[in-house]
Amino acid sequence: MDIWNNVSILSVSENPEDTTVRAFILSANNITLSGFRVQEHLKLQGPVNCNWYDKIENCTVKNNILESGIGTDNCYNSTIEKNVILDSGIFIWGPEGDYTFTVSDNLIVSGVIRVDHGPYYCVLLNNTLLDGGILLISTSDCKILGNYISNDSNYGISLIKASSDIENNTIVNCSVGIYPTWYSGGNKIYNNTLISNDQGIYPTWYSGGNQIYNNTLISNDQGIIVGNSGGNSILNNTISKNNIGILVRGYTIDGAGNNSILNNMISNNDIGTLLEGDSSGNLVANNRVELNKQYGVYIKQVNNEAPYDGTNRFYNNIFNNTVNIFNDTGNYTGNYFISKATNISGGKNNVSLNTSKTSGTNIAGGSYLGGNFWANPDGTGFSQTCNDWNKDGIGDSIYTVSAYDIDYLPLVSMPGDQQPVFPVAEFSTNVSNGYVPLSVMFTDLSLNATSRVWDFENDGIIDSTNKTPVHVYPVSGTFSKLYPVVASDRPQYTLTEAQITKNKSNQTNPVIYGDKIVFLDDRNVSGYYNIYVYDLSTSTETQIPTNISYLPYYYNSDVWPAIYSDRIVWREYRNNNGRVESSSIHVYNLSTSKKTPIINSTSVYDPDIYGDRVVWLDYRNGRGDIYMYNLSTGRETRITTNESDQDDPAIYDDKIVWRDRKKIVWYDRHRGYSTWYKDDIYMYNLSTSTETQITTSGSASNPKIHGNRLVYLNGSHIYMYNLSTSKETRITTTNESKSNPSIYGDRIVWADWCNRNWDIYMYNISTNTETQITTNKSDQIHPAIYGDRIIWVDSRNGYRVNELFQGNQDIYMCTVSVMDPSLKPPVADFFANVTSGNAPLKALFTDNRKAAKSQNCGANGN
């Protein structure tokens, strides 16, 4: 069928399953095609004009099944969306220029998306490619956003003479995840997740100047690799469990060096960072390079003669590996470059391990920038044992890595003040003698006090709570009693820590209810998880019968169990040779040992439970919605129906909370279409059938609810919202990263990066006080709370087998008890230079009190 007129072509049913055509050629402006199954390659191209096709615009192809893909030729300002493409893929050719083209929400079973000399402002959004990738050739200012890409034997996302913003994509099991090459520099590559690829992010061949930030790279052969493409900014990435975390290599100075590697978490790789070839002039700072099996940093350079003699600078990093840095002085003999004789003067490579001593908070918490923090996982590292008598955060001696590599300003540990803060009572008066009636103004000068009381008559009745009260003494007398007392609302806690799991496997994703702790454990096969429950009342552990079937961690990382009373709920996978075939939500009753499926679907996530109600995230409608199931009635209810995505559901009593993600798309004639998400917290009341928007910031996430209070992340802070008063309160004060808030009663817990490692903190709502729960230098994450028990995942117990480090995450618990105030009773004491005399009498009082808690001045002459 050849279409030459401006029309909308819609199947009667708009169901592509029951309306099949052999072929379409769309050759005019303003055409919409929807609801068909098309057997042959669908074409969008204008009428033939000599050897070219005329341009067409404003075409829409949506909601079709395309058996052999779709191609466009000189088509622009058009949309291809919500189609299922069985083979071949989507091909966009021309016209070059300031035009737009949107490809969104398509499922491509086998095939690619290719834009070749196409419109400059393409938007490739939320597509799923099960066996193929995305390729851009000779185009610019494109947006590649929110796509899922897997199993391409070449490249997940490849750019050739092109530039793009590449954001929020997930790329799994490809040869190269993101591959800018041949003059494809200046890209923004951020918030992507890359798992199990040969190379994760790989700019090469004169494709430098990229901003690579906030990405997660796990289980790739090489996480980020830079080849002949210098001047990149590699910032704030999480790089873990790769063979090589970051690899910088090349053989031209303009293409290989001058990269900035800053603020990254580089851990549990074989080699954390490798510099090789003619790579120089790189800056490596503010990174955490930890628990890498062979080397934290491995330097294997070819040349330090001009122009390759730029110094690689390392400072303000935390190195915590068995071998933190190895500077190989031999000539390069790798596979990528021709080996050549070099003149390495003195047998060394140009490396600097510190900057000049400069005022400013360093990565270890000290007050000066200088060198690096040199640790060892067993606690014997130089920075862990070095003296620092002047407490400036710089070690008292230099650290010699090798004969040529010396850190002259090594950082040392700066533990926080762990002592409780007690109030210190103090006051002054404007006069100390005179004729009666004598008017005296008292001024409270107490430290760490949050309240005060004054009892001038010493009769147990509070006379004033002001800071500067005035009292009139009507008669003369002998003043022999003084009771200075200030009050503090800072409760003192007794923290009792216990290790719950002690085997040499990994435990993660813990939750707690009463005496039961539920968690994932990979003890049967390393890296593959099942569900266990630990009973605190009997100190017994039980495996829950599941069909998670040994799926690897990147599947199980979103298997968060939930528990209420004697019921455990989770998302369960069924797999075939490691590939997901289906998933479902199951409930297990601990009392009856009975397991019950609720729903079977591949699109369900994040269940939570309260009483008989189970809520979860469901993608059955093509976007994230919140659903609920009543275990008593067997009834399923859809909670959300709007067009935005919802996720992260939580339930308490009759209230369900979640994150709502509204997609904001706008058009700029210079930049084309741009997209971002406005994330806010919403609540649904089952009793009143009403939905309420809780936040308006656009950056809220991770909601949890207990009673009439809910907590959530908002940017880098923890916030609380009181449903009774409709009041929002910011809980945290520091700007470092936070994660995983949880609430029970008047206590909030979360993981905090404020000490440059993850620690657990608690906030008491009633007293407005914050308490650090963990102080171990390893990471503590994923806290949960029930009553006075706080649990978390702890990394302190890593160990080595044949020189290879094993992570060994464990579950720990802290029991929080409020210290009895009577254990530190105040002791009132004073000295007076005179105790009697005729009025007017001048007396000098000296305060000798201990552990005073309030200020009470009784001076009535009795």
Automatic annotation (TrEMBL):
Coiled coil: none annotated. Signal peptide: none annotated. CDD domains: PKD. Residues 54-201, 205-379 form the Periplasmic copper-binding protein NosD beta helix domain. It comes from the Archaea. This is Cell surface protein. It comes from Methanosarcina flavescens.
